[in-house]
Amino acid sequence: MTRKLFFFFITALFFQIYPVTSYADMFQKYAKIIWIDQENQVGAAYGRGRKLLEFPIMTGDDETPTPPGTYVIKKKEPNYYSRKYKVPMPYSLFFDLKGMRAVHEGDVPDPDEKGDWATHGCIHVEPPYMKWLYDWAEQGKTVVVVKGRRVWEEEEKKEGIESEEGKESVEPEPETAPEDEPQYEPEPETAPESEPAPESEPED
Predict the structure, then answer these.
(1) Of 75, 182, 95, whose CA–CA distance to 145 is shortest?
(2) Fewer Cβ in 10 A, N or C end of the chain?
């Protein structure tokens, strides 16, 4: 019985630290990761498996989404200006050239006001966090992991009502990045093949 309890404890601890095996492998493979938790609207920077920085973010909504996925930073632009939306996009880290999405400096509302605002698919990060990220990130090597999707206040209320009415409700596991990964010495990631220059303006 003691051995079973010990095994259960070790298994639970493992999945708390490494939510999915692929993510554990990712922290071994890449030296630098920008982790974007859309559900909680929080970002984090990981260097060699250790959390270096945590910061608030703002992402897109259902109409102009920030698609979940694993991306490599394709391009860095310190003073980009969007002619389409007529807004500056300082310290842009473009991770999706096809959809013209970037992590860049931009407004991030207070949590109680965030439900009224969204980006056009990009990821906003406030200063001075964005300047630090821009200097730290490496083109062709740093990975951007976008997890989950935004949960709006109306959805939370609806889920709460359904739960109170006794309907079956499955609560997802937290999608925040693991905090206490062991340090690794990953091999440098080879830069991806260059992509054609984008024809459209970035979505702020």
Answers:
(1) 95
(2) N
Q: What is the dihedral of CA 98, 103, 106, 107, to 10 degrees?
A: 100
Tokens of 103: 């992590």
What separation in angstroms does the CA of 93 have from each of 2, 86, 140, 162, 204? 50, 18, 11, 40, 12
pLDDT of the residue at 184:
40
Give the SS3 label for residue 4: helix
CATH architecture of residue range(s) 23-151 = Beta Barrel (2.40)
Q: What is the pTM of this model?
A: 0.66
Strands 101-105 and 123-125: parallel
Does residue 174 surpass a pLDDT of 70? no
Strand 101-105: give its sheet, edge to edge: 69-72, 143-147, 32-37, 42-47, 50-58, 123-125, 101-105, 87-96, 75-82
**Domain assignments of the chain as residue spans, ordered by start:** 23-151
* Residue that has been written with the tokens 């200063």 in this structure: 127
